[in-house]
Amino acid sequence: MITLYGAPGWGSAISELMLRLADMPYRVENVEGFDRPGPQRDRLQQLNPLCQVPTLQLADGSVMTESAAIALMILDQHPHLAPQPGTPERSLFQRLLIWLVASVYPTFTYADYPQRWAPDAPQQLVDNIVRYRQSQLLWLDQQLRAAPYALGSEISLLDCYIVVMEHWTPGEEWYRQHTPRFSAVAAAVRQRPELKEVLAANGLL
């Protein structure tokens, strides 16, 4: 069985939703507080020296990190959670998954811990990053089909990112006003009965 090391509402929620959507057996080890010195950080660091969530320990004992890598691992076993190969939707899925993880996802790390990167001007760094993030999210919104999911009528692993990220800065109200397709996708995912338990446990309902 897979063990998911994570914290409620953090990026590990994305991977947990992916696992639940794929109906893959897993258990959660809550390491809330891992981002500061203490026993939870020490515990996670034994598995993942970078001390980040999500961290997955697979059934064979190997460790996997990075949400995009986890998504690709899940797709190897559950290819229906992405559009069919050879279709325009598949190309868009691949493009948006990598773009989202490379261009938007890192901004949360920088803005959440600005004193690490700009100790003399942490608020200025946060303000600049949030403006950049908003510009990227506006572009993303234009790429989504929202019919009712990101890429059409079938849910994909990309939708797991959207429903979680809607709760992060700039916040649900901003998304509703400026990225209506993004918000519509998140609302559709929240209606999936098989995901409600995970969403509730992560404070996403």
From TrEMBL:
- The organism of origin for this protein: Jejubacter calystegiae
Q: Which PROSITE patterns match?
A: GST_CTER, GST_NTER
Name the Pfam families for this protein: GST_N_2
The name this protein goes by in its record? Glutathione S-transferase
Where would I find the GST N-terminal domain in this sequence?
1-82
**Any idea where the GST C-terminal domain is?**
86-205
Q: Extract the InterPro entries matched here.
A: Glutathione-S-Trfase_C-like, Glutathione-S-Trfase_C_sf, Glutathione_S-Trfase_N, Thioredoxin-like_sf
In its UniProt record, a GO molecular function of this protein is: transferase activity
Which Gene3D superfamilies does the record cross-reference, listed alphabetically? 1.20.1050.10, Glutaredoxin
Q: Which UniProt keywords apply?
A: Transferase
